[in-house]
Amino acid sequence: MRARVFVTLKPSVFDPQGRTIAEALHSLGYANVDDVRQGKYFELDLQTEEASAARKIAAEVADKVLANPVIESYKIEVD
Amino acid sequence: MRARVFVTLKPSVFDPQGRTIAEALHSLGYANVDDVRQGKYFELDLQTEEASAARKIAAEVADKVLANPVIESYKIEVD
Prior knowledge:
The structure is a homodimer.
Chain A: E1 2-9, H1 16-27, E2 33-46, H2 51-66, E3 72-78
Antiparallel strand pairs in A: 1-2, 1-3
């Protein structure tokens, strides 16, 4: 199965990279872009056929390796 | 509306960062992780209420700024 993990900074944490992208887009004429948040995206190919097992592994891996739980939150999708 | 853009390296492009994460996970005992691909994730807050307009803006922005179409592909979700 494939698990997809999205890691983003928590809403309360300032995101200078996203801010810079938003300003670049404004200077390119995209005035209708209010805000940009940048995060990380991971695709994990897992040797399991059970969605619940895949989700459990992905959550463990996200907690330990992929995200910093102090400043980042993550979401998991399994398919 | 919020558009979410996922940028990943094309399947034919080697992903050393993902490879390194996969090896780190193996050394931590996650033998059932076959492969990891790392990408970028963007959330765009857009001043539009039409999903089709939001998708169009996000695709333009992804082509011009967020992704390098030579080596990367992207997917867009709008909600």
